Amino acid sequence: MARIVMKFGGTSMAGSERIRAVAVRIKREVDAGHQVAVVVSAMAGTTDQLVGYCREASPLADPAEYDVVVAAGEQITSGLLAITLQSLGVSARSWLGWQLPIRTTAAHSVARIEDVGTAAILDSMAAGAVAVVPGFQGLTADGRLTTLGRGGSDTSAVALAAALKADRCDIYTDVDGVYTTDPRIVPRARKLQRITYEEMLELASVGAKVLQTRSVELAMKEKVVVQVLSSFSDAPGTLVVDEDDEMERELIVGVVADRNEAKVTLVRVPDKPGVVAGIFGPLADANINVDMIVQNIAKDEGTTDVTFTVPRSQLPASIDVLEKAQGAIGFAQLLHDDTVVKISVVGVGMKSHAGVAATMFRALASRGINIQAITTSEIKVSVLIPQDYVELAVRVLHTAYGLDGPIGTDAETDI
Amino acid sequence: MARIVMKFGGTSMAGSERIRAVAVRIKREVDAGHQVAVVVSAMAGTTDQLVGYCREASPLADPAEYDVVVAAGEQITSGLLAITLQSLGVSARSWLGWQLPIRTTAAHSVARIEDVGTAAILDSMAAGAVAVVPGFQGLTADGRLTTLGRGGSDTSAVALAAALKADRCDIYTDVDGVYTTDPRIVPRARKLQRITYEEMLELASVGAKVLQTRSVELAMKEKVVVQVLSSFSDAPGTLVVDEDDEMERELIVGVVADRNEAKVTLVRVPDKPGVVAGIFGPLADANINVDMIVQNIAKDEGTTDVTFTVPRSQLPASIDVLEKAQGAIGFAQLLHDDTVVKISVVGVGMKSHAGVAATMFRALASRGINIQAITTSEIKVSVLIPQDYVELAVRVLHTAYGLDGPIGTDAETDI
């Protein structure tokens, strides 16, 4: 007998028929003798509708009252799933965020979970009842409702799994696992059987939207075994686990393209101490996250060119900030380009292998793809290239690192 | 400075524009220096939608989980109204049923309010904040959500007004007061300025759907001054108050038609002790409410005919129950008629005046309307007539008791 947390997203909860399919899936785990707690999202569309009501009421809605409104979505699906489980003969009851309670910070609409009360729910689960818990919501120390921010239900599930010391946290979603790259670009993409927390974090941070980043951080910290799998098929999913020395490791587990970057170049910046602070200080003050930074070596005349990327949506604001600071920074010209894309390769294997970056540069050069900027972390190499080459670059790298499987999604690999 | 509870129904809360109109109305009371608590219903249609989801999940939904689902509707409007009030510069916050708490019995989906916690809300109101409270919902002693049954928000408002010792409980609805009869039938119907609790109860029990019966009972018990008025106009409403000797009283305050009755006649029932129990015992066991009962005098052959009414929706069930008991009861024939209507005249004035019933019978006889059954209470006389005559009977009685005002809804009378 295992103790399992199952989490179902908004697409899985959208309407009575899908809720019934979810209940059937839960019943299977109960019939196998497991203790089950379930975390649910609101029906797809409901949260958007409730957020829309709040905006109509006031563009600057009080976040505490916003939370009262939007938390209702998960409350509804919790009750409906408990009813549906009972109709299948499965003992079940809902436990709202304030009933457990799920204690959070008081940062309304972006609260963080601090503690999950489990005494009552553990008794109920031990007595054979499935516990149905709304994701996304919690309670402040002074008794008000909070929400965790969009996508927060993943984090609710991992936090509950940690508090319950669950054997596994199964995240059911509308994809059936984590792939080596986007199967729409590379038909030979393979579903991964396993991936480490660090790899999942790097993939999430460069744009793979399978799990919310914070939920992966929490899983890593609390050593919660997370499984990503589909509500709509019975295929095995991808396990997100701690790094394990005994695993046969490949160098690279994924190739990801991030289309949300824009490039800015400041031409002929004086090459003197403090100039970098003069550029990035004003951007930070405007809450603009700068990502890749390349500073060329100084030119003869004592100036240098500085290139960096910002989120594409923040490019106009960035230009505005920099033009206002032109006098203080002293650059000659501002160039910008929002037709770039960041390609990253991720894998904990690269910690112990040289040559990962070299393979990347060679592969891209062989197809005439020009690299505009480079950044690296311990388990990731990212390059900026013209967006016209994005599909080609992803396919070339997928092949270069030996990730290609047979065409189709059936093949899996244990990395 | 007064302390006021204002209650707004689902039609008044249906959408952002109407919620804004409600907020403007509340702001007027706040600007006048009053302390205000507001009780809100769910948006019109929301509760039906949520109930529909529960039925789809299971025809026999667990009432405790049903309550979790449907209570979400009032939670949403509470948060939205608080946000809208704030956008008008009015300090406001929501207090959910479990936050006050509003303690109820554990009879899920038909719970009764036992106690309303007011410590926190009184502090908040004293500090100048409007308290927004969802109607219809409460909390059991063991911490689960409950609802009060359809229309329960009126009761929530009266219970809150009693707990807050409010000076007045204003019930805003889609009619602008209590009328002497249905203005769609009698254009000369007058809006009443005042009515007693007892009269309001009798009117409610015979089919005038302005206030939920239980809310009137509670207001009478707790001596809460209730005002019924329209969300959509500024016309003064109707005050529901304690009987006051100094009021100039008219005999009759209202004429009401109830189309939900069906007549059953058992022909040639043996006229012996215990036969009435033999008829009404099985009906009571089947939860069928019998209303008007007429037992004719015994005929020569030692039998009698017994006529009574049941709710029209329960007529098939009643026939079924009685036919199964035919052997035990011993009647010769069962006749039924669902084309009858009950007409009632109500007024506390009739306590001290004879002749009210005689006026009724004379007026109906003068137009050839046959009376099939009669019941009376201390402040009500009801007759059963063929439904074809309903409009004629209401008009004739409205005139006979001197209730006619000028045509239109502007005229009011202080009874």
What does this structure look like?
2 copies of one chain form a homodimer. The first copy, chain A, is an alpha/beta fold. The first copy, chain A, has 2 domains: 3-174, Acetylglutamate kinase-like (Carbamate kinase); 245-415, 2-Layer Sandwich (VC0802-like), CATH 3.30.2130. Helix content of chain A is 33%, strand content 26%. Chain A has 13 helices and 22 strands. Chain A has helices at 16-31, 46-57, 63-70, 72-87, 119-126, 152-163, 197-205, 213-222, 275-285, 315-324, 326-329, 356-366, 390-400, and strands spanning 3-8, 35-40, 92-94, 102-104, 113-116, 130-134, 137-139, 145-147, 168-173, 191-192, 194-196, 226-230, 238-241, 254-258, 261-270, 293-295, 303-311, 333-337, 340-346, 373-377, 380-386, 412-413. Chain A has an 8-stranded mixed beta sheet, with helices on both faces. Chain A has a 4-stranded antiparallel beta sheet with strand order 14-19-21-20, sandwiched between helices. Chain A has a 4-stranded antiparallel beta sheet with strand order 16-17-15-18, covered by helices on one side. Chain A is globular.
Secondary structure elements and pairings:
Two copies of one chain form a homodimer.
Chain A: E1 3-8, H1 16-31, E2 35-40, H2 46-57, H3 63-70, H4 72-87, E3 92-94, E4 102-104, E5 113-116, H5 119-126, E6 130-134, E7 137-139, E8 145-147, H6 152-163, E9 168-173, E10 191-192, E11 194-196, H7 197-205, H8 213-222, E12 226-230, E13 238-241, E14 254-258, E15 261-270, H9 275-285, E16 293-295, E17 303-311, H10 315-324, H11 326-329, E18 333-337, E19 340-346, H12 356-366, E20 373-377, E21 380-386, H13 390-400, E22 412-413
Parallel strand pairs in A: 1-2, 1-9, 2-6, 3-6, 9-12, 10-22, 11-13
Antiparallel strand pairs in A: 4-5, 7-8, 12-13, 14-19, 15-17, 15-18, 16-17, 19-21, 20-21
Helix pairs in contact in A: 1-4, 6-8, 7-8, 12-13
